Amino acid sequence: MGGFFAARKYMESYLKKNPPINESMLKVMMLQMGQKPSEKKLHQMMSAMKAQGKKK
């Protein structure tokens, strides 16, 4: 029972430090960098990030 709460606390702190990125966050980041986010570019970046995450 205690292990469950410890794991839950760990995951909460991990997600605060490393939040999962979704397409809306990616769109905002691209706008801040001065790029115009198209749907094709968003999908390409999301798939590239998912592929990078699987390599770790």
UniProtKB/TrEMBL annotation:
Protein keywords: Membrane, Transmembrane, Transmembrane helix
Organism superkingdom: Bacteria
Membrane topology: Single-pass membrane protein
Compartments reported by the entry: Membrane
Any one GO CC term of the record: membrane
Primary location group: membrane
Similarity-based family: Belongs to the UPF0154 family.
Name by which UniProt lists this protein: YneF family protein
